[in-house]
UniProtKB/TrEMBL annotation:
Belongs to the UppP family. This is Undecaprenyl-diphosphatase. Catalyzes the dephosphorylation of undecaprenyl diphosphate (UPP). Confers resistance to bacitracin. The lineage of its organism: Bacteria, Pseudomonadati, Pseudomonadota, Alphaproteobacteria, Hyphomicrobiales. It catalyses: di-trans,octa-cis-undecaprenyl diphosphate + H2O = di-trans,octa-cis-undecaprenyl phosphate + phosphate + H(+). The chain crosses the membrane at residues 43-62, 82-101, 107-129, 187-205, 217-238, 250-267. It is a multi-pass membrane protein. One of its GO terms (molecular function) is undecaprenyl-diphosphatase activity. InterPro entries: UppP (IPR003824). Keywords: Antibiotic resistance, Cell membrane, Cell shape, Cell wall biogenesis/degradation, Hydrolase, Membrane, Peptidoglycan synthesis, Transmembrane, Transmembrane helix. It is found in: Cell membrane. Bacitracin is thought to be involved in the inhibition of peptidoglycan synthesis by sequestering undecaprenyl diphosphate, thereby reducing the pool of lipid carrier available. Pfam families: BacA. HAMAP family: Undec_diphosphatase (MF_01006).
Amino acid sequence: MEAQSIISALILGLIEGLTEFIPVSSTAHVLLAGHFLGFQSPGNTFAVLIQLGAILAILSVYAHKLITVALALPSDVRSRRFVLSVLVAFLPAAVIGALIHDFIKDVLFETPMLICIMLIVGGIILLLVDRMTLTPRYTDAMDYPLPLAFKIGLFQCLAMIPGTSRSGSTIVGALLMGTDKRSAAEFSFFLAMPTMLGAFVLDLYKNRNALSFDDSMLIVIGFIAAFFSALIVVRGLLNFVSRRGYAPFAWWRIIVGIVGLIGLVFVK
């Protein structure tokens, strides 16, 4: 295992953790950075499997709330509805993702030009939505009705196009349907758990015979880096978006997309 590969895996893991839960598309950042670093992963598994680190980060931050909800399930209607709303929101991505998994990995993940364009387009949309004067009807992720959760889940499916952003699509969808910024981000956190875990299990199963020992070690390095960097983001993001909104992330997407396009044209 070369030192350059280890350093690249560490960098990409840090990028994954820092970008997974903000609406800038972690997959786009990891794939583009990997492209320019010359990092190779069988079946692009690295970008998907290191997301487990980010999942564990959010589980650790929300452990108390998750345990509280779990313990209240037998007696509390609100807790049962919340868990059901997350599962209902997860359903569209689970079905569509399983059906077109190979197309996503073999075609969309291999098209860096598309990734850059989607970063820019998504940034513009996020900027426009952030500037809209919207009156929120839902301010607590625990109280989202099931039809709203399902529609948010449909928006999440847009993120199967790399560069769109899973958190970005769910947050934009939630805001347009009457949620406030903080609860939209929080629901996106909870929806990430089954979605990313499902993607991890499916990808690991499909590529179980393609991963060498060195590949596995690089994934572990990326996983650890993603865990610690995601901890930083999850702990501070809700307060940040409550104060600043999503415009900073929109501009970041646009800048990264433009820089990526320039790099693809001029860097061979």
